[in-house]
Fold this sequence. Notes:
The chain has 14 helices and eleven strands. It is of the alpha+beta class.
Amino acid sequence: MSESADHVSRSTPVATAVTIVFDTRVLAPHERADAVCDAMQTSSVPSHVAHEDPGGAVHGVFEMWEFGAESIFRAEMSGIRLRRTVRQVRGFEAPMLAIAVQQRGLGEYEQFGEQRLVPVNNLHVMDLNAPYDFRWSGRGTSTCLYVPLDRLDLPAQLVRSAAPLVRESPIYPLLVDHILAMTAAADALSADASSAYVGSAATELVRGLLLSAARPELDATIVPARALLPRIRAYALDHLGDPNLDAATIARAHGVSVRYLYKICAAADFTLATWILAQRLERVKADLSGPLAHHRSIGSIASRWGFRDHSHFTRRFRQAYGMTPSEWRSLSAPGS
């Protein structure tokens, strides 16, 4: 494919309307190659567009649907190459992240020095604010989900680190299915009053995909607080029985400082120590009223949930529930 086949349009990229936005079948054959190049610029971001066979049977059908702030762009084309350069990136900052599912043909994708093949029903994450090279030979189809970067709320470093690893995430097949399902029912979904919720669900899946695929050694401080806080809570719940569970232990497990951990909690109006104590007390309370409670001492149940000091535990239990642990067990005993 020669550089002379490249056609660069100066059109300003805009988010277009719904359903079919371009179809070469309504054009004369000699107009189609240039028209496809122009339409690609309008529907996506500035890039060099080169046809595999510009003098041959060039074909292109583009469809776009909006789901609130998110959108789906489906392109069916003859052999094509899309190449975005550093200069084009500097000239236009894209507000979206692209997640594309290959539906026909074998895609070849290169970005950040990594080359990947994209078979049918596989997806790849394309950072539109960095140079890339994407192509396929023969007729191909790609369906692209555009997610607003401000709604995704993930640092570029995390996205770029996770992108090559997304196939390892258990969320990967869920997102592929979600994008394909959105596309299959796009006409009805995009016209529905609740379409924005479908788009928001897609953004949440993309965020989950990237966070789960991110390298383990990635600095956790670049993960947004709203994404890190659920991890902190889940970790604490899994380790309630550990008497050594404290802020330092949790911070170390998540690769952050204690100061940063407290900053995250404060931003969410969340008091970590108080919450852990409440969770432990609730579990002791549940165990005391359980069917096996009479076979176990109150002290052993309290120890199971991380309480070392029996008098401290009893005092906290009374403060929380207005009675001692033994009084609660008697009150909740069968037949009482």
